[in-house]
Amino acid sequence: MKPISRENCPVMRAVEAIGDPWTLLILREFFLSGSRRFSDIETQLDVSPNTLSARMKKLEDTGIVSREIYSQRPLRAEYQLTEKGRALAPVMNALYDWGQAHTSGGTGKRPAKK
Predict the structure, then answer these.
(1) Which of 47, 64, 90, 91 yields a CA-CA distance of 20 to 30 A from 10?
(2) Which H or E element spans position 101?
(3) Are 78 and 60 in contact, with CB atoms under 8 Å apart?
(4) All domains of the chain, ordered by start, with CATH?
(5) What is the pLDDT of residues 66-100, one digit of tens each?
(6) 2 SS3 class
(7) What are phi and psi of 12, to 5 degrees?
(8) Which uninterrupted H or E stretch holds 3?
(9) Are 63 and 84 in contact (CB under 8 A)?
């Protein structure tokens, strides 16, 4: 790693943006399925609406996802990764590979790509 300023560390800034387990799992869902509706993510992850709402707001505020309203009553939105969010693909792939190789249940190999 390059020498860095601890006061303005890129790793620290990245962790502030995406460094909690729910956020990483939400991002996983986007990479697996593309655009997502709030209810789909809530069901898939079995996460509380308050937790999901807070994480989605943070991802939107940091420019990682964008939101498009598709119903006003009740208010419903669909989310998708922005260019900034899609740039996280190598990070998510690295986490996947590390998890496969170094955690219990992993095979040490990446599944064959289709």
Answers:
(1) 47
(2) helix 89-102
(3) no
(4) 6-102 (1.10.10.10)
(5) 999 998 898 889 999 999 999 999 999 999 998 98
(6) coil
(7) -60, -45
(8) none
(9) yes
Distances in whole angstroms, Cα of residue 16 to Cα of each of 9, 21, 24: 11, 12, 12
User: For residues 68-82, b (16+ Cβ closer than 10 Å) or e, as one string?
Assistant: eeeeeeeeeeebebe
DSSP state of 6: G
100, 110 Cβ separation under 8 angstroms: yes
Query: Burial, 10: exposed, middle or buried (Cβ in 10 Å; 0-12, 13-18, 19+)?
Result: exposed
pLDDT of residue 107: 61
CB neighbourhood size of 23 (10 A): 18
Tell me the whole-structure pTM to 2 decimals.
Answer: 0.82
Tokens of 75: 């208010």
What is the enclosing helix (H) or strand (E) of 72? strand 65-72
